[in-house]
Amino acid sequence: MKKFVLSLLAVVAIAVSTALRPAAAQAPTCNQVLTPGCLYFPAIQYAIGTEPPEVLRETAYKDIGGMLRTVKMAIRIPKDAPGPLPVVIWSHSGASGKRDPTGALVEWSRATARAGYLSISIAHQPRDDVSSRYALCAAAPLSMDTATCDVFKYLNWDRPNDIAAVINELERMNAAGEFRGRIDLARIAVGGHSAGAGGALAVAGALRNFTGTVLDMRDPRPVAFLAFSPQGPRSERFFDTDFNRPQHSWSNIERPVLIGTGDGDSTCDRLPEPGSCFGDSPYIRRISFERMHGGNKYHIYLKDADTFHTLFELHTAECSDPSKNVDQVKCDEIARWLMSTALAFLDAHVRGDALATQWLASDNLVAASAGVAQWLRR
Count of alpha carbons within 13 Å of 318, Cβ hemisphere only? Predict the structure, then answer.
């Protein structure tokens, strides 16, 4: 009798706990059958391998200033996944760069590796040598004077070139050595967060105006792009239309793109004038989606001010930080929505998966999030 009472209490406790959770937390996962309100996740999850879980490599190229630039990368390999493997290249945030690729967008890289993608985290190296920066600025098509070069965020130029160098390296790796024939060069996606999102969109064809000349830095090889917390016009050399100037930064993007942001995704620093700030507000981050031509363009917008900037890097560990203090269960669930959406996008537009394509066309994300997530398609 005592065991029965304890079991009954356990069942009641679970039921009460479930009832107290938000509806989104109860959303089932889509595997083989698409049901209303379910989240999408691939049916098979792969291990990433033994410790350490990544293979470290580097490549090098000469920049437009004639300087040798090294790009370090961490490659995460889905263990026992059938090849050749599709690829996701991840570009991290931050204007100052990184030296160690193992910590660059590591959560996103692990998520896509477990979903069966050869996942590459790039460390966009800072230019510590002043002469390297000046040589870059002086070369065409930048051709900057010294004063402009002193405030130029050089990684905005380096990111798309670093990504192109990584794709070049993948082509070499697929031709010889341990990765020979294991990489599907026709199925490459590029993703990024914040400044990395700007780099990914530049590879997709987003235009930038560094010194008065509009530059197109696209690479034709990737087939799809993910941009979390992207910049808007008048930020990081992206621009909008103006009187008698119909061109804007996103007019040339034709390939599939997923944009992700939310109400708390602000890096807008306050200025002395009340109500004014400098930086990217959540609404400004939406503009890239609204400006792009229609056709396989998607936007997840989270209508919740707890969606802080680095949560779009899947940094759920920051939720307990005193500066954030966001409920951990809520934080983890938001990360699930982002991950589900990204994996559906990749499986649909990189792998051509029919169920993923069907999920993108549905409003399941809205139902699963109880309306917190806004899901737009063009």
Answer: 14
Give the tokens for residue 180: 């020979």
Nearest to 48 by CA among 85, 91, 92: 85
The closest alpha carbon to 289, from 344, 220, 229, belongs to 229
Residue type, 42: P
Question: Where are any strands of DSSP class E within 63-151?
Answer: 68-76, 85-91, 118-123
Whether the Cβ atoms of residue 120 and residue 59 lie closer than 8 Å to each other: no
Tell me which of 161 and 212 has the higher pLDDT.
Answer: 161
DSSP state, residue 143: -
Q: Residue 213 in contact with residue 179, Cβ under 8 Å?
A: no
265-299 burial by CB neighbour count: b if 16+ within 10 A, else e?
Answer: bbbeeeeeeeeeeeebbbebbbbbbebbeeebbbb
Sheet with 257-262, edge to edge strand ranges: 54-62, 68-76, 118-123, 85-91, 183-193, 224-228, 257-262, 297-302, 373-377
Provide the pLDDT confidence category of residue 28 given band limits of 50, 70 and 90: confident
What residues contact residue 144 under an 8 Å CB cut-off, 6+ apart? 137, 138, 152, 210, 211
Structural contact between residues 348 and 321, judged by C-beta atoms closer than 8 angstroms? no
How far out from the chain centre does Cα 54 lie?
Answer: 19
46-377: CATH class:
alpha beta
Q: How is residue 165 annotated by DSSP?
A: H
| Mean pLDDT across the chain | 89
